[in-house]
């Protein structure tokens, strides 16, 4: 990979700055792994995937003004750029290992890079992820991370395994990130418990690992529960019913919004990076215990049914009309 | 991976368009590989790395207005976004296998996407590369590709193996892409033989494979020969001398510029995506033959010496002063 493009167009004019950028990142993201035969500093990384493991790989981009508001703390951007990718690995039941970072910056802002690298590194360290290479480019602020992990052969969780009769679960609580964004977009501030969920989402890696062999399908909630569960339904050729009253809402969210708003945020808000998964209903107790062991809560929120689409039911099992909360991402 | 972010901020407002984008790309990039257990359409790709192979992975970003001028044909952008990454794999001696595509677009421009996907697919097909996932995002036009390949264990070419006494070689011809860009930036047009090198560079994958076991060090020429050979020298803790008269220049370049300009373009121009490599001088004949068998030319252009830095020598072995040609990338 080329960490050599910062001063594009004018070779020599900014090599020193670029070198500093790379060193700033390399110095902070200092996870060492014996399976990295060659990391930052060559044309590509050279990596050892363990025998009998399938490689799991994903990429997600964050764009300034789209996925985070201008003015977001650099450390939060660094954390989140990695978090959204580790969340995709978690949804596959994968064990994270390595990351590549493609960072596009308007200028060689050392303060930004230091903050970004520090936030990225905090999460990388928490999950033992080594940064093995990348690319630094001049342009409008955007970050593409590629994350790598692995699963034992044929053990990955996918979107396509949900079966009629399965129960639908979610980890953690839903709507916090969208609630925080709603308050920030309204010009106010958000309680720390909510804004932390928006700026520093915790990818549910341990929960994903715990669900191997138990969940029939899994997805991470990045675009909102209804949208993401709909992807599971399409891939699995089934429908789903969600019980509105079963949706897990945090005390901080409940204290900040009325109940209908909390419900809409939990259903349609995005960026929570919880795992939504399905499993045979009979395994509920086992799953709740496994997820608790992974440091998280699992809540049964509905069921898989024949047909297609996702319906939301009230306490009388009548279908509800749901407005799109629409706070999944920063809206320009 | 999430192909689900196009209409960020306003869920539901653009899902149909986004779906079409994904389908347009998926339909065109139709390389099927049995080592892809799960490709586009889940949270991550699931991939089988062959036994006794090391994974080689790299990422490079192209930004509109930085790496290509506004108005570049979408098909050329698609081709080049993959080519610059396959070139990094080639420099490692890796066999390419898969790619992830993170595409950031200002709007859901179906014509752009179709052209982009067609160009990307042409090169992917030529090298048997399967597109296994990615992310579509709204924002200023930029493309990050992650490319994956593999090498037999401990057979990768790296930057760090050059030894004093080795000869320095390059594949193909140098300076064509920078020559084309110089003509285009001057408001004129460039001969097809030059502009093809700028817009549709051919990654030297077969040459990289042929160099396994023969080359002591290798890098791809993306930022210009002097800059890239300097990376080899730093990594190998050696210096290098280049014979200006030995630099391979294409007939089209020689017909377009005077000799000193051709020399400067060959030394400092970027974007040619040739391989610059080192090997024991005694292996020159063997290497030239191997590279010819890979459909390419290899030219001995200098030697590795003790010390540091890269010097350019004239016909009398006197050091030349070299001005930076500075046409490595589109300059804003």
Percent helix of chain A, as a range, is: 25-40%
- Given helix and strand content, the structural type of chain A is alpha+beta
* Number of DSSP E strands of chain A: 12
- What CATH calls the topology of the largest domain in chain A is Phosphoribosyl-aminoimidazole Synthetase, Chain A, domain 2
Greatest interface (CB-CB under 8 A), with counts per chain: A-B, 81 and 82 residues
Task: Tell me what portion of residues of chain A adopts beta-strand conformation.
Answer: 15-25%
Average pLDDT of chain A: 90
CATH architecture of the largest domain in chain A: Alpha-Beta Complex
Which superfamily, in CATH terms, is the homologous superfamily of the largest domain in chain A?
PurM-like C-terminal domain
CATH class of the largest domain in chain A: Alpha Beta
What count of helical segments of chain A does DSSP give?
A: 10
Q: Going across the major beta sheet of chain A, what is the strand order?
A: 8-10-7-11-9-12
The stretches of 5 or more residues of chain A where confidence is low (pLDDT under 50) are: 1-16, 325-332
- Assembly state: homodimer
Give the CA-CA distance, first to last residue of chain A. 33 Å
């Amino acid at each position: 990979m080329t960490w050599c493009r910062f001063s594009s167009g004018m070779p020599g004019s900014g090599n020193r700055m670029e070198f500093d950028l790379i060193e700033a990142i390399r110095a902070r993201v200092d996870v060492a792994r014996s399976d990295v035969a060659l990391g930052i500093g060559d044309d590509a990384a050279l990596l050892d995937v363990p025998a009998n493991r399938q490689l799991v790989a994903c990429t997600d981009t964050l764009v300034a003004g789209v996925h985070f508001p201008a003015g977001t703390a650099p450390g939060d951007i660094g954390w989140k750029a990695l978090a959204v990718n580790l969340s995709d690995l978690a949804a596959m039941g994968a064990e994270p290992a390595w990351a590549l970072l493609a960072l596009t910056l308007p200028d060689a802002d050392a303060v930004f890079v230091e903050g970004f690298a520090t936030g990225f590194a905090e999460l990388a360290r928490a999950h033992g992820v080594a940064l093995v290479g990348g690319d630094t480019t001049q342009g409008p602020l955007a970050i593409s991370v590629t994350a790598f992990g692995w699963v034992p052969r044929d053990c990955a969780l996918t979107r396509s395994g949900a079966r009629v009769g399965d129960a639908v679960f979610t980890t953690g609580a839903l709507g916090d990130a969208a609630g925080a964004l709603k308050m920030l977009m309204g010009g106010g501030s958000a309680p720390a418990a909510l804004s932390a969920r928006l700026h520093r989402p915790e990818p549910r890696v341990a929960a994903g690992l715990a669900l191997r062999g138990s969940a029939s399908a899994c997805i991470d909630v990045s675009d909102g529960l209804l949208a993401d569960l709909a992807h599971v339904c399409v891939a699995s050729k089934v429908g789903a019913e969600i019980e509105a009253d079963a949706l897990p809402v945090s005390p901080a969210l409940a204290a900040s919004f009325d109940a209908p708003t909390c419900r809409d945020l939990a259903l349609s808000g995005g960026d929570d990076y919880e795992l939504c998964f399905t499993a045979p209903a009979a395994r509920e107790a086992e799953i709740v215990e496994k997820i608790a062991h992974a440091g998280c809560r699992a809540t049964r929120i509905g069921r898989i049914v024949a047909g297609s689409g996702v319906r939301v039911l009230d306490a009388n099992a009548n279908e509800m009309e749901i407005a799109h909360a629409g706070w999944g991402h920063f809206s320009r």
